[in-house]
User: Fold this.
Amino acid sequence: MDSNLMLEGVGLMFLGMGIVFGFLTILVFTVMGMSALTARFGAVDHVEPSSHPPAAIDVSDHRQVVAVITAAVARYRASRGA
Amino acid sequence: MDSNLMLEGVGLMFLGMGIVFGFLTILVFTVMGMSALTARFGAVDHVEPSSHPPAAIDVSDHRQVVAVITAAVARYRASRGA
Amino acid sequence: MDSNLMLEGVGLMFLGMGIVFGFLTILVFTVMGMSALTARFGAVDHVEPSSHPPAAIDVSDHRQVVAVITAAVARYRASRGA
Amino acid sequence: MLEHGIEALWQSMGIANLEWGQLLMVLVGGLLIFLAVRKGFEPLLLLPIGFGCILANVPVAGLAENSVGQLLLGGKPEHLNELAQLLGVPLSEVKAAAGHANGAALSAAKALAHNLGYEPGMLYQFYDVAISTGVAPLLIFMGVGALTDFSALIAKPSTLLLGAAAQFGIFMTLIGALALNVFPGFDFTLADASAIAIIGGADGPTAIFLASKLAPDLLGAIAVAAYSYMALVPIIQPPIMRALTTEAERQVVMSQLRPVSKLEKVLFPLTVLLLCLLFLPSAAPLIGMLTFGNLLRESGVVDRLSKAAQNEIINAVTIILGLSVGSKLQADKFLSVETLGILALGAIAFCVGTAAGVLMGKVMHRVSGGKVNPLIGAAGVSAVPMAARVVNKVGLEANHHNFLLMHAMGPNVAGVIGSAVAAGVLLAVVGG
Amino acid sequence: MLEHGIEALWQSMGIANLEWGQLLMVLVGGLLIFLAVRKGFEPLLLLPIGFGCILANVPVAGLAENSVGQLLLGGKPEHLNELAQLLGVPLSEVKAAAGHANGAALSAAKALAHNLGYEPGMLYQFYDVAISTGVAPLLIFMGVGALTDFSALIAKPSTLLLGAAAQFGIFMTLIGALALNVFPGFDFTLADASAIAIIGGADGPTAIFLASKLAPDLLGAIAVAAYSYMALVPIIQPPIMRALTTEAERQVVMSQLRPVSKLEKVLFPLTVLLLCLLFLPSAAPLIGMLTFGNLLRESGVVDRLSKAAQNEIINAVTIILGLSVGSKLQADKFLSVETLGILALGAIAFCVGTAAGVLMGKVMHRVSGGKVNPLIGAAGVSAVPMAARVVNKVGLEANHHNFLLMHAMGPNVAGVIGSAVAAGVLLAVVGG
Amino acid sequence: MLEHGIEALWQSMGIANLEWGQLLMVLVGGLLIFLAVRKGFEPLLLLPIGFGCILANVPVAGLAENSVGQLLLGGKPEHLNELAQLLGVPLSEVKAAAGHANGAALSAAKALAHNLGYEPGMLYQFYDVAISTGVAPLLIFMGVGALTDFSALIAKPSTLLLGAAAQFGIFMTLIGALALNVFPGFDFTLADASAIAIIGGADGPTAIFLASKLAPDLLGAIAVAAYSYMALVPIIQPPIMRALTTEAERQVVMSQLRPVSKLEKVLFPLTVLLLCLLFLPSAAPLIGMLTFGNLLRESGVVDRLSKAAQNEIINAVTIILGLSVGSKLQADKFLSVETLGILALGAIAFCVGTAAGVLMGKVMHRVSGGKVNPLIGAAGVSAVPMAARVVNKVGLEANHHNFLLMHAMGPNVAGVIGSAVAAGVLLAVVGG
Ligand code: NA
Ligand code: NA
Ligand code: NA
Assistant:
C-alpha cells in the first residue's frame, strides 16, 4: 500500500514536471509568436485617444482630485508653517 | 394568449409612462416648493460650524493626512531629483 | 421573581465592577512591569532596518506612488493655472 | 491510479472538452475586451464582463456553476446516482432534471452536492453574493449618487419632464419584445420583456438589478446590450437629434442656470426619497441607495463616507459585479436567437428614448416660448455624462458659442431617476 | 391582469399602506439626519442610521424584513397557507406565529419562503451579514485600535483606574433598567438590562456588538442612545464635573508625561491581549480586534494594512453598519415605552459614569498628594476624543494655562478598554 | 443564579482552562509576530497570522470553532444530549463523534447548533468566507497580477523554462512527504503530500488556495512554512547558488532586454489565459485571476479598478486572510509531529527548487553559448521580488558591475505562473 502510494507519487512527479515544462514551453513559443505578430502590426500600437471619456461614474472625478490635492497641499503648507 | 400578453404589454406601457410622468411631475412641483421654502429661510443656509468635531474615529486623521502628504511630496521631489 | 432579578442585578454590579477594577489594576502593574523591562533592554529599541523590504506585493509600489503624486501635482497646477 | 490520473488529466484538458459554443463565447469575451480596451466602450464594466465571459466558458472548470453543476460536471457515478434518486429521475435524465429544478428541489440538490463535497465555482459565488442578493448594483447606485451633482436639476426642475419622456424607450421596447414572440424561437414572458425593456433606461446598475429580479437567465445579454449601447450613444443619438429638430431650434441659446444653495442640495435627495416612499415603494431600494449616496455627498459632514462610496466601494464592487455579469455569458444560455433579439431591441430602445426626449424638448420649446433648446431632451435617456456631452457637441455644431452641457445635465440626471421609477413600476406590476 | 396590475400598483403605493407608526419613524429618521447634518451629532453614524431608519419604514417594501417577512407582506394566499401549515396554526394567526418563531421553526419558515421565491430585503441582508455575525462592530473596533495612540496611557498607567471607575455608569444603569420593571409596560430581562447598560460605556461598536448578542430587538434604540449621548458629552459632562470638584482641584496643573518608546507601544497591545486571554476570554473578540488594530499601527512594518484598517475598511463598514442599525428602527419595535426608558437610562448612564470617573479622580488627587487633576476622571467614560476635549475645556476655564488634553487621553482610551472588559463580564455571566 | 454566575465566570476564565498546547501555540503566535516585526519576515502576512494564532488559542472563547464547536465548548447538557442523539452516539463520545462528522452529518449538526442559538466564532467566520470559498487567495492573486510587470518575461520568454525547472522543488517535496510515511506518526495521503509540496512554489496565495482544497487541516502549517521560507530566501539561496556555479558563470553579464510594446503587455495575460483554457482548466481560478489583475493593470483604461486591486482590495483581504490562516493554528491540529515534518519538507522544497532552477540556468548557459548567467535560474522559485534581489546581490559579488535584477525578474514572475500550473496539475489529478 505504502509503496503503491510512493509509486503514485513518482508518477505524479513525472507527470507534473512534464506538464509544467510542456505548458511553459508552449507558452514560450506562443509568446514569441504573439510578439512577432505584434511587431508586424506595430503601426496600430498606440491606443487611439478615445474621443469620449468612457466612465459615467467618473463624472466628478477630476474636480474631486483637484479639490483633494488642493486641500492636501494646503494642509501640508499649514503643517510646515506650524 | 399571445394577443392577451400583447394587450397586457400595451396596458403596462400606458400605466408605466403615466406613473413615470406622474411621479416626475409631482417631483417638479415638490422641488419647486422645496426651493421656495429654502429661499425664504435662506438666512439659516450656512451650516453652523460644529463646535466639536464629531468623529471619535477621526482622532488622528489630521496628523496622518499631513504625514502622508509630507511623505508624498518628499517622494515627489526625490523622484524629480532622480 | 422581580426582586430576585433585582438581587441578581446588584450581584452582577458588584461582580462586574470588581472584575473591571481587578482587570485594570492587574493591567496597571503589568504595563508598569513591561515598561520597566523595556527600559532595561532599551538598547534594542531600534528596529533593525530589515535588509530586504519584505513585501512581495509591494514591488511596484514606490513607482506608483511617485506617479500618482506627480499626476496629482500636475493636475493641481493645471487647476491653479485654469 | 496513475493511469487513471493521466486519463483524468487528459479528460480534464480544455481541448478535449471544448464545445463550439464555448469557443464562440470565448471570442465574444475577447470582442468585449477589445471594444473596452481599444474602442473605449465603457471599459470599467465591459472589460471585467468580457473577462468573466471567457472564464465562465473555460471547459470542465465550471467556474460559473453551482455545486449541483459541479457534481454534474465531474461527479463520481455513485454521486450522480444519489442526485438522480433525489430528483426522482433515471440517471440518463439527471442533467436535464437538475437544470430545471427550482424551489425546494433545487435547495435539496444543492445541499446534497455540498454534503458530497462539491463546491460552487468562483464566478458562481461572486454572482450569488453580489447580484442574486441585489447588493452589488445597489452599492454602485449609491456610488453614482455620491458622484452625481443634481444642481442643474434643482435649478430647473422642469427638465425632469425630459427625463420622464425619454423613458418611453423602455416601454416601447417592452412592446417590441412581446411582438417578437410571433417569430419562432422567441418566447418572452412579461417578466422577460420588462427586463429587456429596461435597457432603454441607459443605466447599468438599474438594468442589472431589475434583470436579476425578473429574468436572471437573460441578465448577461441585457447587461452587455445596456453597456454597449451606452458606449455607442455618440454614434446613435446625433442623427436622430438632427432629424427631429430644425437648425433654428438647435441654435437656441439657453439662459444661465441660477445658483443652487447648499440647503437645497441637502434637501433634494430627501425629497426624492419621500416621494418614493409615498408613491412607489417598489423603487425604494434603487431610489433609496441613490439618494443615500447623494446625501452622503451633499451633507458635507461625512466626507470619509462619501469618498468611500465614490471610490473604494464602487471600485471593488465594480470588479466583482463585472465578473459576475460575465458569468451569465455561458454558451448554453447566451447563444440563442433570443440574444440577437435583445441586442436588436436594445438599439431600438436607445433610438426611441432619444426621439421621445427630443420631441418632449420640442414641446417644452414651444411652451416656454422658445427658451428651451430641444436638443437637451436627448440627454433624458441618462447614460451620464455621455449623453449630455453629445448634446453639447451637436449644439456647438449649430452655433459655435452655444454651450449646452450644463443645461443637458438636468435631463441627464433626471433620466437616472426616471429609469429607477420605471424599474419600480415594472417590479411592482410584473415582479409581484 | 392589467386591472389586477393597477390594483396591485395602488396596493403597492406607500400612501395606501402607510401606518402612523411608520410615519412617526420617518420623522425620527429625519430628526437623526437633522441632528447629524445641522448639529454635528456623530454624523458618521447617525446619518446612515437615520437614513436606514427611513428606509426600514418604507411601507410595503419590507427592506428590513427577512424572507418570511416578505412572504407575509406580499405573499400569495397559497403561500401563506403553506406557511401556516408549516407553523401549525390557522391562517389568521400566521403573522403572529411567524413573528414569534425561533430556532428550528424559524429556520424551516425561512427555508420555505426562500424555496417559494421570497428574498430578504436589502437592509435585512446588510444586518444579517454585518451585525448578526458581529463582524462589522469588530472591524470598526479594529479600526479604532489602528487610530488610537495609547502613549498617554502607557506613560501613566494609573489612569487606567479612572477608566475603570467610569464603568460604574454601566452597572448603575443595569440596576436602573431592572428597577424600571416595576412600571407597567417594562419587562426587561437581565440580558435586556445588560444590553441597555452598555450605553454607559460610551463606545458605539462595543454597544452594538453586545446588544446584537444579548438583545437584538433593542439594538436600534441602544445604538441611537449611545451615539446621541456621545454627541451630547460637551453638554452633559461639564455641570457634573464642576459640581463635584472645587475650583482649586480644577486648577491643578499636571506634570508633563514622559516619552514612550516604540517598543513599549508595540508590547502594549500584546500585553492587554495576554491579560484578556488569561482572565476574560469572553472579551476576546472585542479586545482582540482592538489590540490587533493597534498592533498594526504600532508595529511600523505593515503600514499598508494599518492604513486600510483606518480608512477603507472602517469607512465601508461604517456605511453598512449604520444602515443595518437603522434597519432595527422599525415602527413596531421602536415605538414603545421601552424605548423611552432606554433613552432615559442612557442619560443616567453618562451622568453616573462621569460622576464616578470624577470621584475616582478626586481619590487619585488625594492619594497622589495633589498631583492629579480630578477633572481627567470624566474622560474615563471614553467617547474618544470628545470627553478628553471637554476635560481640556473645563480645565482651561479654571486656569488659562492648564492644558489637560494629553493627560485626559490616558483615562479616555482606558475607558475603551474598560467598557470592553465590562462587556466581556456581561457576556460571560448573562450570555452564557 | 449569581453563585452560578460567579462559578460560570471562573469557569470562563482563561487560566482555569488554559491547556499546555494552547500556551505553546500562544508562544508560537508570539514568535511569528516577533519574526514579522523585528526580523521583517513577510510581516504583511505573518503578523496577522501570528495574531490570529493567539486568538485561535484563547481558551473557552472558541474563536476558531464552528457552531458545533461552540455547543461542545459551552453547551448546556440538554443541548449536548440533543447533539449526541443526532449523531447516534452516547453522550461521552459526542465530542469525538462531532470532530469526525462530515458531509450530511456535519451539516445536520451545524443546523442543530444554529437552531439552538450557538453561533460560530469570529475567526471561523472569517475562514469560512475568505478561505473555504477560495475567494481570499484568489483576490490576492488578482492583486499580485495587478502589481506585476511581466515585461522582462515578454522580452525574453525563454526564461519561462527557468520558472518551470524550479517547480521541481514542488514534486521532490511530494516524494519526500510520502517517504516520511515510513516514520511512525506520519500518515500523509497523496492529497496531503500535494498540499505540502506546493510550499516549494514559494507563492503564498497559491499555497493557501491549494491547501484549502486538498488538506484544510494542514493549511496552517503549510502557510506558515511557505511565508517563513520566503522570508528566509536571502539566507537559503546564496550558498546553493554559489555551490552549483563557477565564478566565471556568475560573472556573465547579460545583454540588455529589448523594450516591450504596450500591445504585447495587453496581449500577454490573454495569451496565458487562453493556454490555460486549452490545456489546464483546473488552473483556471488561479491563472484566471492572475491574468485578470494583470490585464486591469496593462489595459490602461481601467486605472480605478487596477488601483483598487493593488491597494484597497488586497489590503483588506490580506488582513482577513491572515487572521483566517491563523485560525488554523489551533493547538490540537498544529502541535503534531506532522507539523515538524512539514517545516522540514518546506526547507527541502526551497533548496531543491533553487538548485533545479540554477541547474536549468546552467543548461541555458551552455545552449545560449554563454549568454545566460545561470544565477538567474534561482529566481525561478518565485518569492517575488526577493529571489530576484538575491540573484542581483550574488551576481554583484562576482562582478561589481553586473546588475542582474531585470534579467532575474523574468524567471521570477515565470515562477508564479509555473507554480500556478503545478497547482493546477495537482488539483486535476489528486483533487478530482
Ligand atoms: Na435612465
Ligand atoms: Na468606555
Ligand atoms: Na512559484
